[in-house]
Amino acid sequence: MELLKLERITKKYGQSQNITALNQFNLNVREGEMLALMGKSGSGKSTVLNIISGIDGLQKGSYKFKNQEMAKVKGDKMTVFRRDNIGFILQHFALIQDATIYDNIALPLRLSRKPKAEIKERVRKLAAELGIEKQLKKYPKELSGGEAQRAAIARAIINQPQLILADEPTGALDEENSRKIMEIFQKLNAQGNTFIIVTHDPNVGAMCKRTVHIKDGKNYETGGGEINA
Ligand SMILES: Nc1ncnc2c1ncn2[C@@H]1O[C@H](COP(=O)(O)OP(=O)(O)O)[C@@H](O)[C@H]1O
Ligand SMILES: [Mg+2]
Q1: Model confidence over 183-206: pLDDT tens digits?
Q2: Which of 134, 154, 178, 229 is the Cys-Cys partner for 170 at CB 3.0 to 4.6 Å?
Q3: Which residue CA neighbors atom 16 of ligand 1 most closely?
């Protein structure tokens, strides 16, 4: 089943719209994929994720999520769409510094008004799966980089979003912690979550099922002859 489709997306920035971030970019993602999106700095990777999550609008082209044209989804409806369907993981964790790890992970469930007992059970179970069950009472600054990223992952997936977007999720981690994070992603993918992972790291790319290359906001074919759309 097709999950989402970007067709000839163009996105420009700047007062005179003089910065072209995406130029007729195409992407099809099916349910259950684990996709690496690779390209140089400034090539438009983050813009792709921001459009898929609805943080950014687009000027030209079409974005469909489960066959729904997303240009028509605005304001609060977009916020609800994002909360219900998408988990977002960033390079620098973006944990709330003055909240405990427990409270950070519980936040999306509280926003969805889940009962307290259910929140407790789900946070503890997921923390155990990610190996951070002993960190729940601590604050973000007391965690190692790898632990903080696992906490950020827990917060992004606690609502069981179908699609997980990760922007350079291993960018601040060493090789061992990067591999651990990717193994967690592979496990979640095997359980049914779809992933789009932006990365510079060929090792991370190699642990995904498919790679799409982007250059200057356009689809870019590598030597392999694969059409990356
Ligand atoms: N909010 C913004 N305002 C102006 N230019 C932007 C903005 N966001 C991104 N850009 C520009 O769009 C291009 C693509 O950016 P981005 O998607 O962040 O690339 P990447 O994630 O691949 O490094 C870059 O030239 C960048 O400077
Ligand atoms: Mg980026």
Answers
A1: 999 999 999 999 999 998 999 999
A2: 178
A3: 44
Structural domain contains residue 38: yes
Please, what is the angle between helix 101-111 and helix 145-157, to 10°?
A: 10
State how far the Cα of 13 lies from the Cα of 66, in Å rounded to an integer.
Answer: 27
Q: How many domains does the chain have?
A: 1
**Distance between CA atoms of 194 and 55, rounded to whole angstroms?**
19
- Residue 70 Cα to ligand 1 midpoint, Å, equals 21
pTM of the model: 0.90
Pocket of ligand 1 (CB under 6 A): 13-14, 19, 21, 39, 41-47
Distance from Cα 199 to the centre of ligand 1, integer Å: 15
Let me know: does 149 contact 93? Beta carbons within 8 Å. Answer: yes
**Is 21 contained in some domain?**
no
